[in-house]
User: Fold this.
Amino acid sequence: MPHASITGWGHYAPPNVVTNDDLAAHMDTSDEWIRSRSGIRERRFAGDDETTATMSIAAGQRALDCAGVDASAVDLVLVASSSPDYLTPPVSSQVQHGLGIHAGAMQLTVGCTGFIYALVTAQQFISTGAYDTILVVGAELISRWLSWENRDTAVLFGDGAGAVVVQATREPCGLQSHVLGSDGSGAEHIIVPAGGVAQPTSHEALDANLQNVKMNGREVFKFATRIMGEALTQALDKAGRSADDIDLFVPHQANKRIIDYAAAELGLPEEKVMINVDRYGNTSAATVPIALSEAFQSGRIAPGDTLALVAFGAGLTWAAAIVDLATDVPALAAPSAQAHTA
Ligand code: UT7
Assistant:
C-alpha cells in the first residue's frame, strides 16, 4: 500500500501588517487586552487586489517549487477554505487553473479544521493507489467578514494561505492515524448568518450586519480547551504512540491560551510546540499549513520526525492527525531552495 509523504510546503501572507495598536485606533480595544486574552500582536489583512484564490495560488506555487514538482504532475488539488472568492464556483478550480494544473479540484469547507480534513482526504486517495501527487491548500480571507463594531471577534482573525505537496512513497511514513469530529448542535457558536440560502443577502441582513462572522468566544473557548487534548489523545492511541513520541505539536493557531492549555495537558515542553498566532492571528483553515511551512523553513522539523496536528472550529468540528515525515525529504536537505519570506 502506498504511503503519503509530505514533500513540499509553502505559505503566503499579505504584506499589509495590522498591529493591535492599528485596530485600537478604530475601535474600543487595546494592545494589552488583545495580547493578554489571545497572544496576538499583529495579523495580515489582504489588499484590495488579493483574494483567497490569489493567496492560495501563491502558497501552492511555493509548495510545488519546494517539492520540485511540475504542475503537470499534480493529480488532484484540494483547497480547504470557509471564505472562498464565491459561493460558487469553488475556489479550488481557480487555484487549479491559476497554477496551470490539469486535474480534478475540490473545495473542502470545514471551518478551521479544513486543512487537516483535506490532508486526511489526500492520504485516502494516495493509499488506494488512485493518485500519486496531491496539492493540499488551506486559505482564508476572513478580514472582509469582520465587523469593526464587533470587537470581540474583529481583533482575532487574519488572512493568509499555506500549502503542502503530498506524494506517494513505499516508505511507511505519512499519516499514522487521524480523528475527525463534528457536532452540529454548536452551529450557532461560529457563524456567518447571511449570504447562504437559509438567509440570502438582503438589505435587512446587511443593515443588521448579518454578513459578518459572529462568534460566541466563551463557548468556543470551553469547547476548544476540552477537544484539543481529547482529539490528540485519541489520535495518539490509534497510532500506538504517546505524547513523548511527538517531535513537534502544530496546533490550530486561534489563541495562545488554548494552545498552552492543550500542550500542558499532554505534558509537551515549549520547544515542541509551534506557535505563530502572535504574528498572524487566527487565519482559520490556513493556520496549520502556515505554521507547518514556517516550522519546516526554520529547521524545526527534521526527516523522520513525528508531527501532531490538531484543530477545532466552525461546525463545530475538530480534527487531529499524527504524521511521520519520511526519512528522505529532498527539500529538507536543501533548505535554501525552499526558503522564502511570507
Ligand atoms: O478558530 C475558531 C476560533 N475561535 C476561538 O478560538 C475563540 C475562542 N475564544 C477566545 O479566544 C476567548 O474567549 C476570547 C479571546 C474571544 C475572549 O477572551 P475571554 O477571556 O473569554 O474574554 P471574555 O469574553 O470573558 O470578555 C471579557 C471582557 C468583556 O467585558 P465585561 O463584560 O467583562 O465588561 C468584553 O466585553 O472583555 C471585553 N472585550 C474586549 N475588551 C477590549 C471583548 N472584546 C474586547 C476587545 N477589547 N477586543
About this structure: The first strand starts at residue 3 and ends at 12. The chain has a mean pLDDT of 96.
